[in-house]
Amino acid sequence: MSDYKGRCHCGAIGFRFRTALVPAEWAIRACQCSFCRAHDALSASDPHGELCFIAEGKELLRRYRFGLRTADFLLCSACGVYIGALIDTSSGQFGIINTHALQPQQTDLAPPSPIQYDSEDATARVDRRIERWTPVTASP
Ligand SMILES: [Zn+2]
Question: What structural domains does the chain harbor?
Fold first, then answer.
């Protein structure tokens, strides 16, 4: 597995994403919800990988919930960057990264697929995330 690091602009919060997939094989999703569109966010995850979120400035970590309120969207309250999302489930924690927060920037990512998740209820949403998001090994 290789390590891919990401962080917000000021460096207060970040992540380490471990995956055996090369970036060109990542499934890149352009979620069409109004939050992700406003951030121009692109999501990636690997159910067989590992994800760890880091907050050096824990007080700067902002958790934002909206819609069905099933996950925390992680933003830096100093620089405003959205780095990824985290869900707590009965099967453990799972997360996605915002590929725009990767440092260094990955230029060989697959083209994003636009996706709408509007029709899901809370159960379907949590089940999909358990299945598709990356197991989280550490979170602030
Ligand atoms: Zn920041």
Answer: 2-138 (2.170.150.70)
Q: How far apart are CA 44 and CA 65, in angstroms?
A: 19
Query: What is the Å distance from ligand 1's center to 122 Cα?
Result: 30
The alpha carbon of 90 and the centre of ligand 1 are apart by a number of angstroms equal to: 30
Give the model confidence (pLDDT) of 79-106 as tens digits.
999 999 999 999 999 999 999 999 999 9
Interval between CA 120 and ligand 1 midpoint (Å): 31
The CA 91 to ligand 1 mean position distance, Å, reads: 30
Query: Is the pTM higher than 0.85?
Result: yes
